[in-house]
Amino acid sequence: MRGQLSKMRCHPSDPVEYSLDVGGETISVNALIGRKIRLEFEQKIVCQHCGRTTKKSFSQGYCYPCFQSLAACDLCIMSPDRCHFHLGTCRDEDFASTFCMQPHRVYLANSTGLKVGITRAENLPMRWLDQGATQGLVIMTTATRRQSGLIEAALKVHVSDRTQWQRMLKGSGGHSIRNKKKKHPSDPVPPRRPSPSGGTQKKRRPGKPGLPATDALAYRLNQPPIWSRRICELRILSFPLAFFLAALKCMVASPCCPSLSCAMASL
Fold first, then answer.
1. Which end of the chain has less neighbouring CB within 10 Å, N or C?
2. pLDDT band at residue 179, thresholds of 50, 70 and 90?
3. At 212, is the secondary structure helix, strand, or coil?
4. Sign of torsion over alpha carbons 168, 132, 231, 43
């Protein structure tokens, strides 16, 4: 088949189901694990925003003019703690209202070990699937993207915000996220903490902006099996590739860029 590649999709089934769109057709990538695949780049890169043909892709699929002008390509997208909306210098206030000024989750994910990250509330558990995680846990909810970015920046001093993709594809995990043991109904109830006004504070429920999600449970994700532990990086822009799909975990493990036009065959 031949056509433009789109972002690999994932569905939180058991195990996680991955699919790839090529030229309007959908391929189940799980079914290709252990089979030989050939990819051939047809020397065409298309901007995913304006459709313009470009020699080089910027910021995961944009031409240079769009990269320079779109709010979706601004620096604060990758570094949300550097959001400058409050300074009045945002490229697109409508984009900021629908993307940045929305509730965000601060979470821990387990792929090659614990990592901290953020995402919009409606993006879970898909964000964890994107990263190839086997576990995820929401630890806080904020009212805006900048707030979550500031919290992430503080936490990544102690917990990494990156994933080692080679170890992830080999299935080499690190620390796991464990749920706390549930209390027995006969266990004594701990006293409420005194409030500054002299009364007692009520236990705050998780999910409200800016409050810790202390009652949240770790979400477990069953990833597809690993066919081989020999992992290497493939560069599709250089020459045609024929390879065995040995493992499948997350979007970044896909051997293709969402803005490339190529031919794909299963041999």
1. C
2. low
3. strand
4. negative
